[in-house]
From TrEMBL:
Family listed: Belongs to the bacterial solute-binding protein 3 family.
Matches recorded under InterPro entries: Bact_solute-bind_prot3, SBP_3_CS, Solute-binding_3/MltF_N
SUPFAM superfamilies, sorted: Periplasmic binding protein-like II (SSF53850)
Matching CDD domains: PBP2_BztA
Pfam family, one: SBP_bac_3
Domain spans labelled Solute-binding protein family 3/N-terminal: 37-265
Name the UniProt record assigns to this protein: General L-amino acid transport system substrate-binding protein
Keywords (A to Z) from UniProt: Signal, Transport
Signal peptide start and end residues: 1-25
PROSITE patterns found in the cross-reference section: SBP_BACTERIAL_3
Domain of life of the organism encoding this protein: Bacteria
GO biological process, one term: amino acid transport
């Protein structure tokens, strides 16, 4: 947090910040190209979304979105630097210009998309708030949590959702608030609270980090809509479009059967006009985004299509073993849908 505050002070002194305290939106792409990398804000450690593996490498869905942006802009997914941020720090870091894009399991809401000076570019993961409890508590439903002590991460939408749910169901609770998700999980494990509430994806991620994960269960209730996705500063449509279409390229690729293994062959040999437009073999749609013709090829080759990203990070082949559910493609019973390149 000290780093964020010092950055704000420096930018204000230099006149980079307006009177609102937000960075002046503008040529983010030019600035990114000049420094040679994308600065991406991620979470401070959430398995499946943004975390460091045993080799110290950043992994996760949110990380792969950032790598995809770098691949689109530079043709190299490694030209990205990561800034781990707590829930409290994340918006200030983006507003101040400390990061170029926020890709940090962040819920798209009306106030964040307007009053906070942010623009959400799409939905990387459809989520919803739930509850994680120790099996010894002996409950099978959130409606049995009357009088419970509840661990919450500060600076998130979970606080209001929790209050609304308990009030509407005439239940009482005692909140205990922490700055990080790890602190909340440790409090649940130590018995200081009866239940941990957060987005269900985060609950599954925190569960596998506990000493005895099989002792804990995620209750069936989903009490909110939590569309998670990347955000950029308002006022820079050029950069907004690049971040948005990075995700759309991954989604369209999965729908068309294009993956990291066959993308180069498809770019050379496909007879499908939709495939050819996406991969730059027909037309020059990258030019509209100020990107190379093969921008989508680079994303898919180096990062993968959306299905590949989902599966390796949070899907059935990962430690989290989360089913696609709402995050399946629209033609497979889910909500994921991307406009066409044409």
């Amino acid at each position: 947090m000290k780093m964020v505050k010092s950055t704000l002070a420096m930018l204000t002194a230099l006149g980079v910040l307006g009177i609102s305290g937000f960075a002046e939106a503008g040529a983010t792409l030019d600035a990114v190209q000049k420094k040679g990398y994308v600065q991406c804000g991620i979470s401070d450690g959430l398995p499946g979304f943004s975390y460091t593996d045993a080799k110290g490498q950043y992994k996760g869905i949110d990380v792969d979105v950032c790598r995809g942006i770098a691949a689109a802009v530079f043709g190299d997914a490694n030209k990205v630097k990561f800034t781990p941020l707590t829930a409290k720090e994340r918006f200030t870091a983006l507003q101040s210009g400390e990061i170029d894009v926020l890709s940090r399991n962040t819920t798209w809401t009306s106030s964040r998309d307007s009053a906070m000076g942010l623009d959400f570019t799409g939905v990387t993961y459809y989520d919803g708030q739930g509850f994680l409890v120790n099996k010894k508590l002996g409950v099978s439903s959130a409606k049995q949590l009357d009088g419970a002590t509840v661990c919450i991460q500060a600076g998130t939408t979970t606080e209001l959702n929790l209050s609304d749910y308990f009030r509407s169901n005439n239940l009482k609770y005692t909140p205990i608030t922490y700055d990080t998700s790890d602190e909340s999980a440790k409090s649940l494990e130590s018995g200081r609270c009866d239940v941990l509430t957060s987005d269900q994806s985060q609950l599954y991620a925190q569960r596998i980090k506990l000493g005895k994960p099989d002792d804990y269960v995620v209750l069936p209730e989903v009490i909110s809509k939590e569309p998670l996705g990347p955000a950029v500063r308002q006022g820079d449509e050029e950069w907004f479009d690049i971040v948005r279409w990075t995700l759309f390229a991954m989604l369209n690729a999965e729908e068309m059967g294009i993956d990291s293994k066959n993308v180069e062959d498809m770019a050379k040999n496909s007879k499908n006009p939709d495939v050819n437009r996406l991969l730059g073999a027909e037309g020059d749609y990258g030019k509209d985004l100020k990107l190379p013709k093969d921008w989508a090829v680079k994303i898919i080759k180096e990062v993968g299509n959306y299905g590949e990203v989902f599966e390796r990070n949070v899907g059935e082949g990962s430690d989290l073993k989360i089913k696609r559910g709402l995050n399946a493609l629209w033609n497979k019973g889910g909500l994921q849908y991307a406009p066409p390149v044409r």
